[in-house]
Amino acid sequence: MTEAAKKTIENETVDxxxxxxxxxxxxxxxxxxxxxxxxxDILSDEDFALLEKQNSLYEKNLQLKExxxxxxxxxxxxxxxxxxxxxxxxxxxxxxxxSVKDFDKxxxxxxxxxxKNQSGKEKLxxxxxxxxxxxxxxxxxxxxxxxxxxxxxxNIFALxxxxxxxxxxxxxxxxxxxxxxxxxxxxxxxxxxxxxxxxEKEIACTFTTYSEYCCLIKxxxxxxxxxxxxxxxMLLSSISVDKEHGIPAxxxxxxxxxxxx
Length: 261
Hints:
Elements: H1 3-21, H2 45-52, H3 57-68, H4 81-94, H5 104-113, H6 119-125, H7 133-143, H8 153-166, E1 172-176, H9 184-188, H10 191-199, E2 202-207, H11 210-224, H12 229-240, H13 247-260
Parallel strand pairs: 1-2
Helix pairs in contact: 1-8, 1-11, 2-3, 4-7, 5-6, 5-7, 8-12, 11-12
């Protein structure tokens, strides 16, 4: 795909995303809650109090992104107890994935981030979406929130549907590799089925790397007028499985438009 084609898709995607961004009380639909008890031993009293005084879940999560990055340490090339403790809190307490025992890939990502020769960051660019990206991106998004964003099944689901309708005039639709999910809404709105049955379109999973995902989110962020890339990430999260005002309602509306013609 040419760069010109990618820019066209980006612009069309932004046009659609603007509609969601401008919805009344859109920020109130962001419902990512988390317990702060485990942070008492990690954060300073001042930072902990700053986090606790935030009135909404949206603002609380924004503040967490700002604060937590300052607690990662480059000591011993990033392989240290502080970073391990942060990673475990992010995955288990913030992410709610308590079954994870193997942090080798996550630890290696942090080590690569602090690689003084910069070759490590090239390795981060090569991460495939299919390679445990949901867990790894959670930690990376807190380690360096201006560079990396969370890439999970819900965010990819939302982004792919935006890309789908941004390319509706094309014969072939270029999307990111979907991530497996147990969410019933994501399973119900299957791309291949809906694309073929209702729109007679061919799907191609053209975009396969985490770096491509982060790059697109950065470009969308600029065009949306957000200051931080995680604001775009949080917008995607809030619309992904919102049946009343999010992606599912948008897809159903587009299907109805097509069948009413």
